[in-house]
Amino acid sequence: MKTISLSEAAKITGGMAVGDAERAISGVCSPDDPSDDKLCVIWDLAALAKIPDTIPVLAVKDIVLNRDGVLHDNPRAALADLLPLFDRRRLPAPGIHPAAVIGEGCKIGQGVSIGPCCVVADGAQIGERTVLQANVYVGGGAVIGPDSRLEAGVAVHDFVEVGRGVILHSGAVIGCDGFGHVRTRDGSWKKIPQIGTVIIEDDVEIGPNSTIDRATFGATTIRRGTKLGSLLHIAHNCDIGADSVFAGCSAIGGSAKIGRGAVVAGMAGVSDHVTVGEGVTIAGRAGVTKDVKDGLTVSGFPAQEHRAENRFQASLRRVKDLSERLRRLEKLLSQSEGGR
Predict the structure, then answer these.
(1) pLDDT band at 43 (very low <50, low <70, confident <90, very high)
(2) What is the pTM of this model?
(3) Is residue 178 left, alpha or beta, with left meaning phi > 0 and alpha meaning psi from -120 to 50?
(4) Is 236 known to be catalytic?
(5) How far apart (Å, rounded) are the C-alpha atoms in residues 251 and 211?
(6) Which one, of 101, 144, 96, 95, lies nearest residue 121 by Cα?
(7) Is residue 144 located within the same domain as residue 273?
(8) Please, which residues have CB within 8 angstroms of residue 129's CB and are 6 or more apart in sequence?
(9) How confident is the model at residue 338 (pLDDT cuts 50, 70, 90)?
(10) Is the peptide bond before 302 cis (omega within 30 degrees of 0)?
(11) Domain match, 297 and 211 both
């Protein structure tokens, strides 16, 4: 079991050790399950009051601690530095499993790990130190950059380009056909061939069972540093800006453009051909049906500026009372007219 001292934890995270700086910790825990040998992450004084004084804590710097711990400007950021130290998962050793199938003309970089039952089709390229877990499919002519990780069951289709340091979680499907059909004269639907590709830039992470459709022509593009959650859909020819974050079950319609640094909450949707500006926040379950300017927060359906939506919702809650008042007024008016 790996252990580090509080002083080492402080150095790694850029924080400050207090109390017994040489006290050893073997992990991180929450206030709901505190442990003497783990660093307990707290966010406020209320949480601090619930745990015994013997528990070492990771807390924000403006909290005065009379116990062992680490103080930090941003405990959540500190977690990102600490948790990998205690991660029991390990990447597999480099090598190609005997049960993997490697096509003709493939280029496999040094230090690559390819697990059992993987298929790397003809002409594909796998960058250095990239890991393909079991049952991964990489299509013909596809390019996977260095230091990427494709978890079990990922499918990357023909001619898709995946950058450096990309994480594709289990079940992600990259480069399946976009949903394009045209109605014919007899009322049936004819498939529009989807002959474009998908480009995923560096440091992107895509959650399990999410799908990124290939473009009809050109490319569907997920730009650098964007993080996509689980069960998410990006339709054909979308352009997703750098450093954006999408929560689970959100969906983006075809040819939509999302600006840099956007935040899209769970179950939100954006209609096709809509442009969402830079730094926009789309609230949970919102439906964006028209363009959104830079920096706005929108909510509701159809989505509008968040303050306007709050006023609208507040007015809706008054409808029942207003309706009852109207009925009483109508009744009084009717009685008044009947008495004439």
Answers:
(1) confident
(2) 0.89
(3) beta
(4) yes
(5) 10
(6) 101
(7) yes
(8) 94, 109, 110, 111, 112, 146, 147
(9) low
(10) yes
(11) yes
The span from the CA of 39 to the CA of 72, in Å, is 13
- Give residue 182's pLDDT band: very low, low, confident or very high (50, 70, 90): very high
Measured CA to CA, the distance from residue 228 to residue 173 in angstroms comes to 13
Q: How many residues does the chain have?
A: 340
Please identify which residue in the block is written with the tokens 């992600």: 172
Would you give the DSSP letter of residue 100? -
Amino acid identity, residue 29?
Answer: C
In a domain, 132, yes or no: yes
Assign 3-class secondary structure to 186-255.
CCCEEECCCCCEEEECCCCEECCCCEEECCCCCEEEECCCCEECCCCEECCCCEECCCCEECCCCEECCC
When divided into structural domains, the chain yields a total of: 2
| In a shared domain, residues 149 and 252 | yes
Domain with 269, as residue range(s), is: 95-307
Q: Measured between alpha carbons, how far is 269 from 265 in angstroms, rounded to an integer?
A: 9
**Final residue in a domain of this structure, among 86, 120, 149:** 86
DSSP codes joined into one string, 152-176: TT-EE-TT-EE-TT-EE-TT-EEEE
**Cβ proximity of 205 and 229 under 8 Å:** no
- How buried is residue 98: exposed, middle or buried, by Cβ count under 10 Å (0-12/13-18/19+)? exposed
Tell me what the mean pLDDT of segment 146-154 comes to: 98
Per annotation, catalytic residue among 72, 233, 236, 273? 236
Rg of the chain taking only CA atoms, in angstroms: 27
Domain presence at residue 321: no
Buried (b) or exposed (e) across 2-29, using 16+ Cβ within 10 A?
A: eebebebbbeebebbbbeebebebebbb
**For residues 84 and 291, what is the distance between their CA atoms, to the nearest angstrom?**
40
Sign (positive/negative) of CA torsion 113, 171, 176, 246?
Answer: negative
Predicted confidence (pLDDT) per residue in 213-270, tens digit: 999 999 999 999 999 999 999 999 999 999 999 999 999 999 999 999 999 999 999 9
Does 21 lie in the same domain as 74?
Answer: yes
Q: Is residue 286 part of a domain?
A: yes
Q: How far is CA 55 from the centre of its chain?
A: 32
